[in-house]
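A.,

Following up on our hallway conversation. Structure tokens first:
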């Protein structure tokens, strides 16, 4: 079979420089498709202006099981898919948002989701619970897989001992980061200083990435070998509410496990990470 050597060649120069719009121009870029429309629907009668506690993803799914939140008081939908669940526990004056436990938001929907929530609830302060990956955390020191610390980010200059700061060059690319960014912009554009802090639970595996499409897929609970200790969760729970000035009565207690169960990482994970395993280092 004969092959035309000019079949894949560019058209002559005059075709590019011609004023005729009907002629093919290989230098013309295709118009990028516009991002999907994002429709946020918030169904709730909760009064605006209360402190807001947000528990997201795997951390939110695990924390909510022992937080005694009471009956659901509202829901947040993104393009008719439920993403957030709103609660108003009787033990605190804070509003609780359990977010992305049944689905994960694509990047193109995060900004709209976050700003519509903040516009509707107008929180006086927010605290967020999420995760960070031990394996991908960059540090100048080797980090243990077992006993890795809770880390935090805050808009203010605060210390949350024994928690450790989530230090550069590490970054968050999640809805939690979008909440912090939005709160920071609102603080800079007004005279009112709103407090915002993220507490990050250590996750042994690589954290999930944002999907390209919005779809419902129930997140799996951490296994016994991966779950966080009761002691850690009790302290994190107390800090979540105290940081927004809404300390609550009662303590965190995991309801789905028998009393006294140890929910720390397994003994197999208690050894310090060797070079090439666990966290990244510089």
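Then the amino acids I'd put at each of the 282 positions:
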């Amino acid at each position: 079979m004969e092959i035309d050597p000019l079949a894949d060649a560019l058209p002559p120069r005059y075709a590019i420089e011609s004023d005729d719009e009907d002629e093919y121009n290989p230098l013309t870029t295709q118009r990028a498709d516009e991002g999907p429309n994002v429709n946020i629907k918030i169904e709730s009668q909760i009064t605006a202006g209360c402190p807001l506690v947000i528990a997201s993803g795997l951390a939110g799914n695990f924390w909510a099981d022992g937080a005694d939140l009471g009956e659901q008081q509202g829901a947040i939908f993104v393009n008719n898919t439920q993403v957030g669940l709103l609660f108003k526990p009787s033990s605190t004056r804070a509003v609780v948002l359990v977010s992305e436990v049944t689905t994960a938001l694509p990047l193109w929907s995060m900004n709209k989701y976050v700003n519509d929530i903040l516009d509707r609830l107008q929180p006086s302060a927010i605290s967020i619970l999420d995760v960070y990956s031990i394996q991908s955390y960059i540090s100048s020191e080797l980090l243990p897989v077992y006993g890795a610390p809770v880390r935090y980010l805050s808009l203010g200059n605060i210390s949350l001992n024994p928690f450790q700061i989530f230090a550069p060059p590490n970054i968050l690319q999640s809805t939690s980061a979008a909440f912090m960014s939005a709160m920071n912009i609102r603080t800079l554009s007004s005279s009112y200083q709103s407090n915002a802090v993220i507490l990050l639970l250590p996750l042994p595996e690589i954290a999930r990435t944002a999907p390209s499409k919005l779809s419902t897929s129930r997140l799996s609970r951490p296994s016994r070998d991966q779950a966080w200790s009761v002691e850690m969760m009790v302290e994190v729970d107390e800090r979540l509410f105290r940081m927004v000035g809404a300390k609550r009565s009662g303590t965190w207690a995991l309801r789905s496990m028998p009393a006294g169960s140890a929910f720390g990482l397994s003994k197999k994970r208690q050894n310090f990470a060797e070079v090439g395993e666990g966290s990244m280092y510089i």
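The mean pLDDT is 80. Curious whether your intuition agrees with the design.

B.
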